[in-house]
Amino acid sequence: MPVVDEIACPFQRAALLVARWSGARRDEIRRLPIDCLDRYADGTGRLRLPARKTYKERVVPLHEDGTTALQKVVDLRRDGRERPFTDELTGQPVRYLFMQHGKLLSTYYLFDTPIQEACKAIGLVRPGGRDGQGRGTVTAHRFRHTVGTQLAERGAKLHTIMKVLGHSSVSMALVYAQISDQEVLRDYKTVLTLGATIAGPAADELKSGALPEEAVDWLKTNFFKTELELGYCLRLPQEGPCECDLYLTCAKFVTTPAYAPRLRARRQVEQTLATDAAGRGWDREVERHNCTAERIEKLLTDLDQPFDNADDTLVEERLDLST
User: Fold this and answer.
1) For residues 110 and 12, is the Cβ–Cβ distance under 8 A?
2) pLDDT value for 321
3) pLDDT digits (tens, 9 = 90+) for 121-180
4) Rounded CA gap, 168 and 230, in Å?
């Protein structure tokens, strides 16, 4: 964000970049403690957000741009000698990061002023404004929606979106899942269009066109809700709770080649668990894990996918929002 990088005040620059890359609320950023920043084992920035609207502290990954800008403010403030404030929610003493001359900086100074200047610098203005030179069309709160939308479009689970943005209800996170219409359409076509390469108990029903019209209508409207770890569950609401994640033989389960890396990884896990169970003399567990591994092999065969692939890189990953 070149225009933000050019902001002279390190406090304003850091506040905007943290908003852009964390999706945090403005008041959460304003009340960050001095010890809010460290790093994960792989070097990714880790931001600790204070308990505010949801009364729960949370930790989220932070892009390097935001991490670098915030670290500069931490370095500036580390040796500050002001007395700690008492947090109005927790009652605990806290040294706030965004302070000058013994006072907590306002959201107007940290966000509204610099974002307006940035908008004017690149021509994102509409008529009006106090000085008659127009008013910026972007607010700092827009960054929060940007993060939520990008998470949804890059395949983040609803729970991840909730955790990053600090939502207390699924309905709020669903807003972003519904925004990513193009991603939903793409996934929808990989499963429900004629000629799609799919496997699983529900595949025959889909390929034959035997799925009831009302079921198709529901899936078109709610397809983003059907995704599982290894594929999709086409169970309708009136059919009760989903069991696809527990039983890969569920009649409503279907998967596509896009899930082949996950299927292979799950197969390896099941084989490892079967070996461990055999060493402990747990015959029933050996049978259960072997059955699951064999079921996954059948799915991979139906998808015309190999059982092993050296190119698979299924490691714990954090979503990259930089592109």
Assistant:
1) yes
2) 43
3) 888 888 766 666 778 888 888 899 888 888 877 767 777 888 888 887 766 766 666 545
4) 26
CATH of domain 2-142: 1.10.443.10
Q: CA 5, CA 279: separation in Å to the nearest integer?
A: 58
Measured in residues, the chain has a length of 323
Cβ distance 181 to 212 under 8 Å?
Answer: no
Where in the chain are the domains? 2-142, 181-323
